Amino acid sequence: MLKKVLIANRGEIACRIARTCRKLGLEVATVHSSADRFARHVREIGESVELGGAAPSESYLNIDAIIAAARRVGADAVHPGYGFVSENPAFVRALDAAGLTFIGPRAETIERVGGKANAKREAARLGVPVIPGSESGMTDPAEVLNLVRGMKLPVLLKAVAGGGGRGMAVVDTLDGLEGRIESAMREAEKAFGNGELIVERYLPQVRHLEVQVAGDGQGHAIHLFERECTLQRRHQKVIEEAPSSGLSPRLRAAILADAVKLASGVNYRGLGTVEFVVTGEEHYFLEVNPRLQVEHPVTEEVTGLDLVELQLRIAATGTLPLAQTDVQCTGHAFEARLCAEDAAAGFLPATGQLQVVDFSRAGVRIESGVDSGDEISPHYDSMIAKLIAHGADRESARRALVAGLRESTVIGLVTNLAFLHELLEWPETRDATFHTRLIDERHAQRGVVAPTAPPLEHLAAAALHWLTQRRAESPALGCWTLGDGFTGWRLRSGPIQAAPQPTLVLKAGAAEWPVRFSMRDDQGSSVLVIGEQQVSAALQSLAAGRSLLQCGGRALELTIRGDAGQVELASALGSSVFTAQPYLGGDAGDAAASGQLGAPMMGKVVAVKAAVGETVVLGQTVIVLESMKMELHVTAPFDGSLSGLRCRVGDMVERHQVLAEVSPV
């Protein structure tokens, strides 16, 4: 039996694996980078070894450092989680040579099915239907270019070693094809250490299904039913569910059988996922993920199994601890990936400090790797938490997840919380008529989150919070200061009315609301005129950083953070962020209009596409950044010439840092 497990990963999955290890009586330790010294997985697991620098290549991908860490803590097994070294056969062989147990498939199995090209050949050999396209991976951009030119568009470029949409691009025009191929290869090389691509016929409006399989390594395998992973943006999953809805019994049986056929045919050991695309009543093999999946909790919820425990038992005994007849699917489960990203800006990731992270009222299963005060780093992915809901049927599980999102609070960074809430209410989600391009198409048409005015209660709370902050900055004025700390310059006689002139302007995007205040009445309420709306409101501080708003006869609990310049708040009505300016305070200049090219987020400069003095046109890429394993293109805001360059390849830059200037010609 295993005694101590080293978890070679970070974040929520490291915390998740540790809980099961301890449940089984196993000792556990983990690893971290220099950027993660105080991360939640380090704090929660309690024993961790620093591997190296913040970059994954210096830490979480450093095989020698991981093995040294395992020896240092006295581990006899290593669990890789997902990502990083979880699909690296060289890592598995290094563990074997060191006498350590890898909790996953054998190295030769990963080589056979871990890469998309090899997996496709194995599937075809076993009679599993595959998508037409290249039979092997390509490292020469010219070879990829020639193949694409000879195929009917659209086609799909896919990184052989990839996952999560990295190194993947849909090609529907030959314009700029060479640059897109080079970008996909570069992204794949940086994310996976392998820039090899395959090319396949692109199938529009398909569904993406995956089957959880488990094998003993001796040719015996079972399935744990399927998951629906169709709701994606840029080939990255957003919401998953189990089981899939709308599959005919014949199609479901065929997909499950093909997944088991493939796992058995390669003598798969441990837990893995066989992925398919579905169009109509046809299904095609997509890839194998020889590891634990991010979305594994939905399978756990409908089967009642602990998949990490299953991995550990197979690794320890070399046998499957259950038969196919032991696996039952009960009810329905949904999972949503809550990330620090701006859905309205093309899902641009956000980095920085999370001031408040609170799921105490969510009422659903939470898997998270961060707490209040933790940082979202540009070196890793932007996921904050996974919210998982289970119900007797699909609709009850969907409603439970909607409620859980509504009761979740994240303050400090922009998140996709509002988008997830809206996505679950889309008609295509409610009746399961979605396809993998739905979110991207909706975003291209109008943006994925319908613009809505913030609730009046949020405006009132933000205004009162601002006023409290401003009064706290001013010294008391003796007899002119009321006992509650608000300054009044009028006698308490007659009705309490708002001042004739606005004191404050609240802004959210292009919208703004001038605010007029009255003094407080005997009950502590003020009359506020917000735009054209008048309301009586009072804000009271509560414990644990919460506040209670009394507004127009309605009580609402909120979490509020910010200063006199910006207010961010969350309640059961959602989240809002306002900039706050004293009336007639003036506006900041528009950097883009002035020709300044700012960094959209913290990242590393990987390419500079123009030199000072060169002519550039609107939309032309000037600088390429890498952040969170993705490339961001900083483009010219208008036709002109590059008049200044403030960065070099290799520089780490901060969000909003000016990288270059463009001057009109």
What does this structure look like?
It holds the Pfam family Biotin_lipoyl. GO terms for molecular function: ATP binding; ligase activity; metal ion binding. The protein is α+β, with helices and mostly antiparallel strands. It has five domains: about 5-105, Rossmann fold (3-Layer(aba) Sandwich), CATH 3.40.50.20; about 130-200, 2-Layer Sandwich (Dna Ligase, domain 1), CATH 3.30.1490; about 205-445, ATP-grasp fold, B domain (D-amino Acid Aminotransferase, Chain A, domain 1); about 455-580, Glycoprotein, Type 4 Pilin (2-Layer Sandwich); about 590-665, RNA polymerase II/Efflux pump adaptor protein, barrel-sandwich hybrid domain (OB fold (Dihydrolipoamide Acetyltransferase, E2P), Beta Barrel), CATH 2.40.50. It is built from 16 helices and 38 strands. The strands form nine sheets. It has an eight-stranded antiparallel β-sheet with strand order 13-12-9-10-11-14-21-19, with helices on both faces. It has an eight-stranded antiparallel barrel with strand order 23-24-25-26-27-28-29-30. A five-stranded parallel β-sheet has the order 3-2-1-4-5. The N and C termini lie far apart (about 75 Å).
